[in-house]
Amino acid sequence: MRPSARTRRRTARGAAVAAVALVAGVLPGTGSQAQDSEATVRAAFTCAFPTGTQRVAAEISATFPASGTPGSPLRVSGLDVETVLSAKTLAEILPAGTTDVASEATLTVRVAQGTSDAEARWDGLKAPSTPVWDAADLTLAHRGEVPPVTVEHAGKVTFIVGALDLDLAPQGEPSAGPSTLPAKAPPAARCTPADERSPVLATVPVGDQEGSPRPSASPTPTGSAAPPGRDEGGQGDEDGRSARREAGIDVGDDPLPPAKPCESERPTAELDRSKLPEPPPGVTMVKLAGTHWCTVPVAVANVLKLRGGMAINDPADGATTANLLINVESGSNGTYNQTRSVGEVTLPDASATFLDFDLMPVTAKIEFTGTPMTIVTEQRGNTLPNYATIFMSQTLRMHDVAVNGTPLPVGPHCRTEKPVDIELHGVGPDEYHVFKGGVLRAELDIPAFTGCGTGGEDLDRLFTASISGSGNYMKLIQGKPCLMRPGGLGCALPPEVPELPR
């Protein structure tokens, strides 16, 4: 009987594999290599959605190396986090008219070796848009790449499932009317393992070439461990640490530190009506209660005379949050839509470096005293982009000034003689959306400085000549905001902390 084409291909492929294995076995010093192994574990999570707590089932799988060497990366591939949302849960968390749901997830994994451990955050796991059917459960398959793990010492390395963050993106049929901002927040949840002891995903021996990853099908006394943030007795860490590098364990790039806490009270600021665009005839702006959100804005201001950038609200230092009240006024006539929002933020001091008249390096701290933000979004037509504008002003005060490392007394009142007017612009929906965050830009005029100097010495001219003027540029990135739940519950997920703009 003549073999089929499929059989011939399979036989040829098998012969090629055998030949490669034979060559590998006879080459000096090569030795045999154990195969990587896929580990799979099922876990139950308790998820805090804005509408309440729900139980979510998940299946987590990934491919782990059979063994490792101290100082060499352990590469985890093929991460797949499948979450199952019950029909009952979907009915409670999804807005009416939802036809499809996409999702992004972050899985926290505790990497333990002996008495040491570190916390890895495997983020950016994306699930494609998946249809939602009436009275049916929904399975979302999140996939993505994760950074390698490196340990300095020999010993078994255990990967333990921790918290799971879900950020759902419901989609519905487009309406025939004008686009408006969503009235309901996209569902997001912080999920924690439902069982006291978290399931073990895999164990990889390092420095010992025997063994392979051992998947744990369910949390059992031998296949489970205390979740991240708990010791083996289930008690929380006293110092609350969530280290990425700890005692010889490196789980990837250091993450940005969490932002400062969100304000629990709604903003009380009023719109700056001098900045509000006049709507077209026939459009009446209606006052609304607004919804309470929290977000993280970070920025770089390129000051022309400094020939460099100044980081504002640097996320590496633990950025402060902005307190938003979105959609406090709205108006539409079918071809035009305008929404108005307010925000409050107290920016931390920034650091600046420049050269004086003698080309000596001058360093200084800059304090910001600002007004509330007035945020306006406009759309003309149903298919045209949204245009967002954020109005605010900031007075700059210089302090802790040093010339070539030597302190320079400037007094407590060295500031711009008037506020810097800031008008940030963003275009949506792809580049910026108040509910999704994104990039905004502004050109700045920095006023002259006044009140600088002590003991009769006038330093106004130095700072005015070195910093003040036009041609300055600001690029701001607003992270994805989180919805503040009533009753002091805060956000279900913390606000996104973006990196500084480039």
Question: If you had to describe this structure to a student in words, what would you say it looks like?
Answer:
With 502 residues, the protein is mainly beta. It has two domains: 217 residues; 219 residues. 7% of the residues lie in helices and 48% in strands. The protein is built from three helices and 32 strands. Strands 14, 15, 18, 19, 20, 21, 22, 23, 24, 26, 31 and 32 form a twelve-stranded antiparallel β-sheet that branches. Strands 1, 2, 3, 4, 5, 6, 8, 9, 10 and 11 form a ten-stranded antiparallel β-sheet that branches. A five-stranded antiparallel β-sheet has the order 17-16-30-28-27. The longest helix is centred in the first third of the chain and has 22 residues. It is flat and about 75 Å long. The N and C termini lie far apart (66 Å). The N terminus is likely disordered.
